Amino acid sequence: MAAESTQIASEFNNPNLEILYSVDGIHARIKDLGRQITRDYAGKDLVLVGVLKGSCIFLADLMREIDLPMTIDFMSVSSYKNEMKSTGDVEILKDLSNPIRNKDVLVVEDIVDTGLTLSRLLEILGTRGASSIKLASFLDKPEPRIKKELVIDYTGFVVPNKFVVGYGLDAAGRYRNLPFIAVVKDPSAA
User: Fold this and answer.
1) What φ, ψ does residue 159 adopt, rounded to 5°?
2) What is the spatial distance between Cα 129 and Cα 67, in angstroms, rounded to a whole number?
3) Which one from 104, 110, 113, 140 is the annotated catalytic residue?
4) d(CA 31, CA 37)
5) Longest dimension (CA), the chain
């Protein structure tokens, strides 16, 4: 795995990135999540709701590993209001295209850290009559968690309280296309 990580890092030629999860490790974990979700949602009317923009890569790979009929939809929300940290006051920038009443909803997120935005988003979706609402997050960063009661039903990886990029996560819009997860050694140089 170290040789693979070194090769990928050198391909992207960025000494500011330290590989945390490899391409192979990510794909193996997503296969496991897909099998678990397939078992748990058998016979249900499943809707995957991707939270844009970061979840798009995880959502695409995850849905290919779920062996069930399903639909997908997207939401885009903001709680930063030109601030550096979440205010917890969620603004819906793009709402669902279809109703979720009587559906089993699985919200798909790239990373959960403080939990403020996601807790509020789940509250909003909870008013729309879904049969169930659960959460799948590619990454869980529990150390800064403010909303301790937030339950992540399906977790890809637990990460340290460091700035991570790749596989949909960005630094000022960059690095989303990296096929691995990396820690940014110096966030000011990202």
Assistant:
1) -115, 155
2) 25
3) 113
4) 10
5) 49
